[in-house]
Prior knowledge:
The complex is a heterodimer of chains A (about 160) and B (about 350).
Chain A: H1 6-136, H2 142-154
Helix pairs in contact in A: 1-2
Chain B: H1 6-16, E1 21-25, E2 29-32, H2 36-41, E3 46-48, H3 49-72, H4 80-99, H5 107-123, H6 131-138, H7 152-174, H8 176-183, H9 193-233, H10 248-251, H11 257-275, H12 281-337
Antiparallel strand pairs in B: 1-2, 1-3
Amino acid sequence: MNINLTLFGQMVTFAFFVWFCMKFVWPVIIEAMEERQKKIADGLDAADRALRDLELAQNKATDQMKEAKQEAAGIIDQANKRANQIVDEAKTQARAEGDRLKVAAEAEIEQEINRAKEELRSAVAGLALAGAEKVLEASIDEKANRALVDKLAAQL
Amino acid sequence: MAGENPASTTEYIQHHLQNLVYGKHPDHGWGFAHSSQEAADMGFWAIHVDSMAWSIGLGSLFCWMFLRAAKKAHTGVPAGWLNFVEMIVEFIDGAVKDSFHGRNKMVAPLALTIFVWIFLMNLMDLLPVDLIPSLLALTGVHYQKIVPSTDPNVTLGMALGVFILMLYYSFKIKGTGFIKELTMHPFNHWGFIPVNLFMETVGLLAKPFSLGLRLFGNMYAGEMIFILIATMFAAGAGAGLVSGGLHAQLFGEHTSAYFWLVIFVLVCGVCWLNLKGKVSTGKTVLLSMAFMAIGGGVFALGGGLMQWGWAVFHILVITLQAFIFMVLTVVYLSMAHEDH
Lengths: 156, 340
């Protein structure tokens, strides 16, 4: 149990190993560990962020869907309205057309009637003249009686 | 060597406590000491070859193992050895951050070196006390202490290293404040300077000495108990962790080292087979007991069990001592950094 040179030998050895550990071992390992720690922290952060992003995207999608539904409902409403309008328009148009046709037909009928009356009148005048000619046999002055007969015909 | 004869028991113990010394003997010149007396005669200029060899060897082992981990260090998922090393590094880093608040890049690696190195040196205590000395005796080396931390030179050497660091940082950080701390501390009056200086110097010197002697005392006592158990039951050969002690009961006083080596290998083999699942645990215990019984007889088996029990308890001691040395080093250096 003598104290001897071993004491200094051990001190030198000690210093050497501490130096070695300080230079080659500790910094390398601790650096790697810290870097990994950072990487893990970053990864967790990214995961959190991704989760938040996902939630946001889902919310956005839901909103968009709602909007689209509303829009679609609006379009359908508008279309229905427009269809009704078109039907109404068509109805009024048809009615107007009908009226117009009726009026035209009536006018034509009246015209027809007038023409028939006219024809009838002229025919009656002719017939009356012929009848009177036959009755009188004698020649009545056509010229003198014509005015009389025309007056008669106008009264028909 | 066995326990029947008090003189030989004393011899056995003394033999186990003698380092392998190389130095200059006044009469015989340079060479290895052949007895305790010769070793003592060599005085200061001698060196404990075994302590130095084992401590340098274990320190190199530490450096090599950790360097291997450092070379493989990456930021991905760590596995295997790197994982283990990182666990230790993180443990040390946490302990240092807990008790050291200054800024110094040296303290953490210093703590790591101290912890692992001292742990490895203490771990040598768990090897059977006679295993390596007996093997080396076959090659003609007569003295061998394989636990460097049972050598006060080693523990005090490390403690003095720490002491030098304490002084260096005290002067560097506090400058004249350190002198003031030494001279004016308990009694703040110039008249008390001699008293203060005396008290503070004693307090300062007590730190490295307690540090070194605590480790030495613990390990020395542990080693001593292993040796005493060995002398009580199976002084000759196989006292140790597993081999139980193949003593002379069967093979006579001068048991060859090979016998208990064979038993040791057999027991290890059975345990290994058990771990591989080829032999049941009950059978393993029985077979080991049988081997040990054949090897050493009932007494030796008792010695083996006691060795084993003490070794299990000692695992706690060696770890704790390594940890205490490390923590106190960090605390002392932390005190050297703190300006009052």
